[in-house]
Each structure stands twice: as C-alpha cells, then as structure tokens.
Specification:
The complex is a heterodimer.
Chain A (H helix, E strand, L loop, with lengths): L10 H19 L7 H24 L2 H27 L7 H5 L10 H11 L14 H14 L4 H4 L4 H10 L17 H16 L3 H6 L14 H25 L3 H5 L2 H9 L5 E5 L9 H5 L7 H5 L12 H5 L5 E5 L14 H5 L2 H34 L6
Helix pairs in contact in A: 1-2, 1-18, 2-3, 2-18, 3-8, 3-18, 5-9, 8-11, 9-13
Chain B lengths: L1 H31 L6 H30 L8 H23 L4 H13 L1 H10 L4 H13 L2 H19 L12 H26 L2
Chain lengths: 396, 205
Amino acid sequence: MPRTLICGHSRSASIFLTTVLFFMMAFLLVGGNRNNAGMMQASLVYLVFMTVLAYLLFRSGRVHRYRSIFFSVYAIAFVLNFIPILLETRGHIALTGRDIANLDTPLCHLTIPMLILPGLVYGVLIFPTKLFANMGFYPMLFLWLGATVVLGKGWCSWGCFYGGLDEFFSKLLPKRIVSSRKFNYSLRWFPFALLLVIVVWSFLALDPVYCGWLCPFKAVTEFVQPTNWLIWVQTGIFVVLFLGLVVVLPLLMKRRTQCGLFCPFGAFQSFVGLANPYRVRIDKEKCNQCGACVDQCPTFAITRETLAKNKVSITCARCGRCMEICPRDAIQFSLLGVPLRGHDARKPGFLSEVFRPDSLFTFGALLFGAVISGGMAAQVLLRFVHLARTGSFLFR
Amino acid sequence: MLAAAGKALLLGLATGLFCLGTCAPVLAPLMLGEERKGLWPLLLPFLQFSLGRLLAYAVVGAVAGWAGAGAAPVLTPRRVGASFLALAALMLLYGLKGGFPGWRLCRLAAPLLARLRAPFWFGLLLGFNACPPFLAAMADVFLHGHVAYGLAFFLVFFLVTTLFLLPLVLLGRLSRYLSLRAVGQWAAVIVGVFYLLAGLRLLIP
C-alpha cells in the first residue's frame, strides 16, 4: 500500500487541545467522585489513559487507531461491569418474570426507535423499565439526545458501548481471511429494512420485538430466563447472532459486520445524525479513485459508486479509517456549509489548527466518550483490584 | 344492508391504523422494491394488491355469513398457515431477486413474479390474515349468518381500510433511489422470514 499522508497537529496545538480536554475531563470524571476515594483514584488512572490517547491522536492525526483503542476498552469495560452489577443487585443475570413485572430491566439505546410510535400514538412505554432509575428511560433518552447533537452518526464509533466489541474483534487478526472483493454492497441497506420492520412490528405488537428476538448483545448482557422452548429458541438466536456478527465475521473480514450490516439503531442514527454538522468529505481534486477506502471502510460506507461521486454514504460512522489509509490525504472531516478549501488540514497557524473541523469533532467526541465511559472503566479497574485482594470480581 | 355498511364503516375508521400497520410491512417493500416511473406504474401494483385483498375479503365475508348460518368454520389455523407460507415464498423471491441478482433462482424469479402479477397474490394471501380488526368484522358477520350481509360488510370494510393504505402509494415515488429500492427488497426478505415462521407455527401443532 502506498505511504499515507496523515495530517497530525503541531506539538503546540496538540498540547493545547490535550490540556483543555484534560481539565474538562478531570472536572467531569474526577469531580463527581470526591466522596469516594477508590472511585476517585480509579477515575484518575482512566483520566491519564484518556489524556495520553488524546495527545497521541491529536499529534499523530491517526484518529482511527487511537479511537479504536478507546472504543474497544470502553465496550469491554461495559460488559465486564454490567454483568457483575446485575449479579450484585438482582442476584442473577437472566431476567425472570418478577424482574419484568417490577420494571427492573435496564434500557439501552437500541430500543429507542421502537419506543417512538407507541409513545406518540398510545402514550405508553413498551419496555419494562423505570422512568428515572439508572439506565431507565429518561437517562437513556438524554444520553442519546446529547450524543446525537455532539456526535451524530459518530455515536456508532465513539459512544455506543456495543460497537466497540465489533471493533475489538475486527482488530484481533493481523490479516483479513475473507476478502471483501466480491462483497454484495446492497447488504449495507439491510439495517434500514430491519429498522422499518421492527418499528412497525413493535407498534403492532406493543412489544420491543428486536430485544425479544434479534439483539445479538443479549448474549453478553441479560436475556429472559429460558423456561420454555420458545425462550430457548430466542436465546439461541442471540448467541448465534453474537458469535456470527460480532465475533466470527469481524475476525474474518476485519470489518464491523454487526454495525455495518445489521444494527437497526445504526440505520436510525444515520437519519437523526444528520442534525450534527460534521461530515466526512472526499476532495475530488485530490482523490485518484484508487479504492483503498472502499476496501477498508469498517462499516461498508464507501463503495465504488459513492467514491465515483466523491461521497461517502449516509451510513458513515465517522471512525476515521478512510482518512488514515488514503494515500493522497483526500478524505477529511468537514463542517457543513464550509467548502473543503476552507479548512485545509495543512494550513499553518496555531488557531487554524485548533479550529480545524477534525480537531473540533474529535475533541467533542473524546470528551463525550470519556464522560460516558469513565464510570464504567473506573469501576472495572476497582473490580480488578478487588479480584486481586479477595479473589472475587463482585463487590458483595 | 345499511346496518352492515354503517358498522363496517365505523369499524374500518376505528381500526384503520391497525390495518395500515398490518399491510404496510408487505405493501411498503412492494412499492419501494422496484423502480416505478409515472402515475400508472405507481398505481398499478397498488390496484393489483387491492384487488387481491378485495377478493380475499369477499370470500371471507361470504363464507363467514354462510358459516354463521350453520356451516363449516372459515379460517382454520391450517388454512391461514398455508396462506402465510405461500405469502412468505412470494416475498422471499421478491426480495432476493433484487438482493442477489447473480443467483440463478433469483434470475428466474424476476420474470416469474412479473407474469404472476405478484402484487395481486400479496394482497390475496395477506387478505386471509386474521388480524384483530379482521376478526372483529368476522365475528359480527358470523353472528348475523347471512351471505349478503357478510359481502356488504366486508366490501365497505375493505373500502374504508383501503383509504388508510393509500398514502403508501407515494412510497413508490421514492423507488427511483437505488438505496431505497434495496431497503424495500431487504424488507421483503425480512417480512418473508416472519411469515414463514408464523405459517410454520400455525401448521405445526
């Protein structure tokens, strides 16, 4: 592959951006844990980790590489924290009829598209969760609204605590085992079709059907306790989808197959994410149509057809991979309404570097990501310390 | 007959949104899945689909009235299950012919579906779907036990619920976008799998 021209920041701009980010993260991560010494120390460790990553990201310009480390750590921390919390608070992972009747089911963002129509038409919440508790309806709604404003579709690469698992497995093998040269790119519209079907189906059944039948992540979070053959079938579907889409295919193809080819929330976010002003754009004067980005895009958002029009598809998750591998530096973050010439990454000057669209986007994304992952990551660190001291991963 | 028409009108108006929800998963992929330029190509699949539904409703209305007069049950699980399986097969073919045009089966499916007037069969087979509004209509007709009453009731019920489906015709305008056609085709595949499972569940005791 030809040498790439990744455009990092100067040392002074990188230090400035990282310092501002450090203080903001410190305020939000550590400030809330003043009464808990253990959490404060663990948050400080995570703060240092995020600060080092941020500096490396700004200085090198390798958005994808360092985001990928953060994103994988975040997703693994989520799973390692979520299951122990269930065991500590409920005593079991599998949902029982009593848990559902008590509205004791944490809500995740994947349900949001299914909740809208029944909520608007009938005024009901069709998910057995509490309105205000941790990971209940309103906290998740506000988290999603915030993410949509700050990240847009970038949620899928910076904020989603499931997406990092795809990312992690897609990075494990050094080389691709299954080539995607003959890949059927019409499959990337499958999540939109699935979104359409589950929204209508959930409205008719007044039940979040995706959670009951199709969510691959039930395999690593919580699932309904199998008490009859139908629930066993549902559980089997979760496991098969998880192993297939999140583990095996990403390993073989080195792409995020669950995110790019299945996730209906990703499709939903493609629409609502248009509210965010940041875009990935291809400079037609620099691009020579070599197709390196088509072959490497983790979420299948660039095809030969879109590249010929110098565009990325609506499904682009702002992961930064195409920018890293483009041999002509033709792909970059851009701000809606500003022509590409208006934010040339190589323009000299401290202020023009700091206010580059990629600086602004990655700054906001890192801050948002650090804040929502901070609590989980710190708790997992404490759990490891607890494991070393007592031999148990659970606090009680 | 006026009583039948009045009741069917009210039932249709009250439950039309539910009918839209039931028919949209089949009709929406149909309207989106193929490029449709001009008014006639836009209206034709909707009219064919509606004709299929009308025929199914007429049959069910007449048989429900006849059954109410003391004859056999109308929609047994086996019959509904069989119609679901046939609908599933059609929808899978319809979706896959676009999704995997390179496959031999899919290449063969396209001309076959065109010759069959696929939308008509979609409407007919979906018309036997015993959704809640449909069951309410059947119960009323069954209690009256007259074939003519059943026909009149289901004819009006069909006309009123068709009004709710009309906006879906506009989806056909979006079929000029390749990406949305792909979405329509994949939706047909997903809905096909759903009806396949629903059909099997009804057929296997």
